[in-house]
Every structure is written in structure tokens, then in C-alpha cells.
Amino acid sequence: MLKHDILKKSDKEVQAAVLGEEKRQEEGVEMIASENYVSQAVLEALGTVLTNKYSEGYPGRRYYGGQVFTDAVEMLAINRAKKLFGAEHVNVQPHAGAPANLAAYAAILNPGDTVLGMDLSHGGHLTHGHPLTLPAKIYRFVGYKTEADGTIDYKKLEALAKKEKPKLVLAGFSSYTRQLDYAKIAAIAKKVGAYAMMDMAHIAGLVAGKALPNPVPYFDIVTTTTHKTLRGPRGGMILCREALAKAIDRAVFPGLQGGPLMNTIAAKAVAFGEALRPEFKQYAKQILKNAKTLEKEMRKRGAHVMFGGTENHMIVVDVVKSYGIAGKEAEQYLDAVGITINKNVIPDDPRGPMDPSGVRIGVPALTTRGMKAPEVKVIAGCIDEALRSAGNRKVLKDIEKSVRKLCKQFPVYR
Ligand SMILES: *Cc1c(COP(=O)(O)O)cnc(C)c1O
Hints:
Blueprint: H1 5-10, H2 12-27, E1 29-30, H3 40-46, E2 57-58, E3 61-62, H4 68-85, E4 89-91, H5 97-108, E5 114-118, H6 134-138, E6 140-144, H7 154-164, E7 168-172, H8 182-191, E8 195-199, H9 204-208, E9 221-225, E10 236-240, H10 245-252, H11 262-275, H12 278-300, E11 314-318, H13 319-323, H14 327-336, E12 339-340, E13 342-344, E14 358-362, H15 364-368, H16 373-387, H17 393-408
Parallel strand pairs: 1-12, 5-6, 5-7, 7-8, 8-9
Antiparallel strand pairs: 2-3, 4-10, 9-10, 11-14, 13-14
The structure holds pyridoxal-5'-phosphate.
């Protein structure tokens, strides 16, 4: 457990919420594919006086004085990110993934331009064209889909690109489990005179750990969050070719944001430093192994795993087909046993996005706490039993006990 002595004295109510959340994170299995546990060094960097400082602008060209240390810390984050991903230019200021994407769009597109991105029910993210988002009000998004076997038909994608004439071809996803052919996507963009952008938010840690191919050499722009598999603080980042550096930097500040969150940027620098160490390669490799084990164990028990299986850190399961329950019920049953996942759409979901047919299950967080194949097997058994429980309280209570027992052996923050 962490100490919050000063907080305890000054604000018991907030401290109680913090302690409650700490306990929840320690005692349950976190399987939301976009979540992770940061190191104590990252937590410490977040809680520093860097939060006091206004640093509008970029290192060496700020609007206010007193920037010796903020410049130093931002340069550390930039240079480490460049090294991690082999990028020509990096902007570490986006407050999160959504603003990073909005800034990237703003840097290269005009209102009304067409963007070709992955259909949301096939794995694309909200920021890739959900009708309620600002980008969808400014630009015209057209979705491409996956095939029944989970792959992408690049001939079809090329035909769609020729028909729709996008200014941007977008790759990236938040609930797709196969690898993309970066070279093919970039070539299609080039053929139709569009920019190519990859949103690697979900897999950035797997790329950093060299467990998956690096998209950076193929794309004009690569955006990411820093808090998913990359295991840093909540935040965003944009990597791009030198030719787009100015446009990207201007789009982030002053285009979209004011002062950067310097404590968060310090924490990003710490996380990138961690990702540069050899242990992180082991971590990334173990994530892939754990996801594969989870897939196999779930299949063995009769689960219908989408997209023909997984090549990354997560699986999507059609729980209607597998267990005769909706994603919402599956989420509730698993919550009751201390396993946190999220309901998720499956391609062209017959039930619609509000009450979808699937769940998304990810392993980055449990891998951080040291769990490997034996533990993943136990967890798969717990998931399967809970989904078959029909909500029986006694059954769920028993499963919860095994989950708690397992988690006790793998403390997050000692
Ligand atoms: C999570 C995610 C985002 C958004 O990140 P936030 O930090 O929540 O704004 C954007 N794109 C993809 C592909 C994501 O998975």
C-alpha cells in the first residue's frame, strides 16, 4: 500500500476514495484492455511541483520565464520517445489520446475532408468517426471493415480509397486483435494522394518492447496514448516526419491546448525510460504469451473468439453466441467476481453499440503484476464459470474467493 499521510490530514474524503480505489486495484484482476498499473516512479513524478508550472510553447521557445527544468524534462521525454520508436519528430504535450488525434487531424486536414478509418464496430476508436465526436462534425469519416476471418482485405480497402478519395487513411483500433499490414496501408494512401496515419494507442507498449512491428517508418503521423500497454501516465503523444513537425506542433499548441501538464510530461519521460530497459521487452513478450494462453483456454471451454484469434494483448468474445448472455450481463457477472472487463461491440453487432454482443478482455495489467500462463489459466476458468453462472450469487461468491486469493499472491504496489 502507498502512503498518503498529508492527504489524510488535509482531506479525509478524497483520501478515502483514493484508498478505496487502491484496494480495488490490488484485490481484483484488471482485464480492461486499455488499462495498466504504472510504476511507483511514474506515480511519484505525477505528484511533483512540476504541476505548478506554466510552460506554454516548446523547449527553448516558451512564452513565460523560469523554464530551465521544464525544458530539461520535456527534452528527456522527447528524446526517449524518439529513441523508443525511431521517430523524426515527437510532440509529448497532448493531454490524452483523443486530443492527440484531433490535433493530428487539424494539422493536415481541412473541414469537410474525407478520412478513411476502421469501422467502429470492427475495432476502430470513437475518435475515428463516431457521430457524436467533434472530428465527425468537422470531417467526413468513411469506415472500412474486417472480413469474416478477422483479416482486412487490402484490395477492397484500395478500391474504397479510390472511390472515396480520402485526404487521410487512418489505421489503428481499440478492439481489434490482429496485426495490420502497415506497408500495404501506407501504399494505398500514397496511391490516392492521402496522408497515412496510425493510431497505435493500444499497442504502443508492444511496439516499444519490440514484440510487434513498428508502424513509425511507414506512416506520416503516428498518434498514441501513453497509459495503455506503454504503461505511462494518462496522456497522449504524436510522432511524425520532420516535414510535418511544425504543423503538428502548432496544431497542439496553440491550436488546441494551452499550457502542457509538465508533471505528466515528467511521468511520460520516466515511463519511456522504463520502456527502454531490457525488462520491458520481456514484459511485452509476456503480454503476447498471456493473451495467446487466454485465447486458447477460452476456446477450449467453447468461447467464440472474434477476428480468428489474437496477435496482440486482448481478445474479443461473442458472449451471446458462446454463453447466451449479452455483453452487459457478462460484464456484471465478472464484476461480481472481481474481474474487470468491458462489454464491447462485435463487427456489425446485431444488438447495436448500446447493448452489444461481446466483451473485450485484455492482459497488460495482470502481466505487469507478474502473472503468467498458470495464473491466466486459472483466470480463464473463473471467467468461463462466471459467464455460465446465470448470475447465481453462491457460485459467483465462490469464484470471487479464488480471484481474491490469486491477487493476494501478486501485489501491485508492495
Ligand atoms: C484509447 C484510445 C484513444 C483515446 O485515448 P484517451 O486518452 O482516452 O483520449 C484514441 N485512439 C485509440 C485507438 C484508443 O484506443
